[in-house]
Amino acid sequence: MSLKSLNRPPFLSKGDKIAVVSLASRLDKKRYRQGKKILTESFGLEVIEGQHLFAKHHNFAGKDHDRLADFQSFLDNPEIKAIIAGRGGYGTSRIIDQVDWTQFKTNPKWIIGFSDITAVHQQLQKMDMQSIHGPMVVTLTNEEESTESLKKALFGYSLSYSAARHRFNRFGGARGEIIGGNLCLLAHMLGSDSDLSFDDKILFIEDIGEYYYNIDRMMVQLKRAGKLRKLAGLVVGEFSGSKENSIPFGKTAYEIVREHTSEYLYPVCYDFPIGHETQNRAVRCGELMQLVVNNKGVTLNSI
User: Fold this and answer.
1) Is 57 a catalytic residue?
2) 276 is an active site residue
3) Mean pLDDT confidence for 139-143
4) CA gap 249, 140 in Å, rounded
5) CA proximity to 265, closest of 198, 172, 180, 177
6) pTM, to two decimals
7) Residue 115 catalytic?
8) What is the set of domains in the chain, with CATH numbers?
């Protein structure tokens, strides 16, 4: 089988314009201002804000049509070289089917975010285009190495990450296109227009605030849909703030993942620095990467 990366937008240069949108939940202005300062002073980019960036409609950052309008205007603007989500939360999948990708296909640009933005990443992978799963504006101050990883991903550097050995790791090596994101969103996309094959891919997963039984249910859903059967490898990130019912489920998040992948032979690593914790390394979804899991630990590198 011939391995290749998806198509990718042009990498950024200092002075380029990057747009900020709110695709999901409402934005905290203080944390936003801190992240914006990093984009302008450290990255050297010109930040353009969406018209409805700080809008409020119940839990959402404005009504669906307002969030969609900001995203669409920046997708269609050739001066904008990248679009970064202000934050995640919930709401992206409510508008993803209304996006017109016509101009984006002729003038592609990087889309950046994680968590709820997984809906956009998977849609772009379906369109054979790379995007960046990584820190959003409100999380840029969380950890210097993760912020630096986003800068490298945007400016075209090779990505190289490592993680400590975990007792659940399954040794082996894999090369493949890397895809993934938030487990809840990956399960949510099944059967939608954004659904795609996971075969021969290196899949990464993470989540936050889920009950253990629901993590189990989502893993069962992926497994029943055949998404786990033919992976090249699996990277298990952070499962932050996982919750227990009054009657204990009996397994941790990592034990649940291990159970549902135990019959397969591909390499699996756990506790990789991707997710809702301070360490959230940026990856270019759709890029060809190499995963090595052995008794020394884990490496994940661009090829």
Assistant:
1) no
2) yes
3) 93
4) 34
5) 172
6) 0.97
7) yes
8) 17-155 (3.40.50.10740), 160-302 (3.50.30.60)
